[in-house]
Amino acid sequence: MKSVKDVMTSGVRTLNPRDTVALAAQAMEELDIGAVPVCDGQRIVGMVTDRDIVVRGVAQELPASTPLEAVMSAEVEWVFEDEDVDQVAAKMQQRQIRRLPVVDRDKRLVGILSLGDLAAKGHAKEAGHALADISEPARPTRSGQSAASGPAGGGETH
């Protein structure tokens, strides 16, 4: 049995809930990543993604100095480092999750497990199945379009 610890990315950059949206965006750009765990000490209290910044920050016209706790996702799925990687891959597929924080048995953050980790470290089949389910076309509701939609949802025309 291969455990999550065998394939996860360790040495993960974290931010504090009081750090700013601008700092998170800068970290994502610098590291070429789309999500950063938000921790209070070594305990994970949320995740902030590039999508969180755009949808909960930019779209709401919040300043770049807004603390992460205002835009982060506080309900975070996570896994233990000693869990079976095949079972975790199935969990990712079922719940349509691209990345999961990894914690030790004291619930301290020790890494991140992504679909890329699975694919690069011998679990390409599982990663492919998970990605196929995650990437199923969404059926968004278009009835309540924002003012930014303009004609045909493409923005305002002049």
General description of the model:
The protein has a single domain, classed as CBS-domain. The strands form 2 sheets. The protein has a 3-stranded mixed sheet with strand order 3-4-5. Strands 1-2 form a two-stranded antiparallel sheet. α4 (about 85-95) packs parallel to α6 (about 125-135). The protein has helices spanning about 5, 20-30, 50-60, 85-95, 115-120, 125-135; strands at about 35-40, 45-50, 80, 100-105, 110-115. α4 (about 85-95) links the parallel β3 (about 80) and β4. The mean pLDDT is about 85. By secondary structure, it is α+β, with helices and mostly antiparallel strands. About 35% of the residues lie in helices and about 15% in strands. This is CBS domain-containing protein. It comes from Hydrogenophaga laconesensis. Keywords: CBS domain.
Number of self-contained structural domains: 1
Classify the oligomer.
single chain
CATH topology: CBS-domain
Average pLDDT, to the nearest integer? 83
Bulk shape: elongated
Structural class: alpha+beta
Beginning-to-end CA distance, first to last residue? 60 Å
Rg, Cα atoms, Å: 18 Å
Q: Supply the CATH superfamily name.
A: CBS-domain
Helix content: 25-40%
Pattern of helices and strands: HHEEHEHEEHH
The order of strands across the largest sheet is 3-4-5
Low-confidence spans: none
Number of helices: 6
Broad CATH class? Alpha Beta
Largest sheet: 3 strands, mixed
CATH architecture: Roll
What percent of residues are in strands? 15-25%
Q: What is the total tally of β strands? A: 5
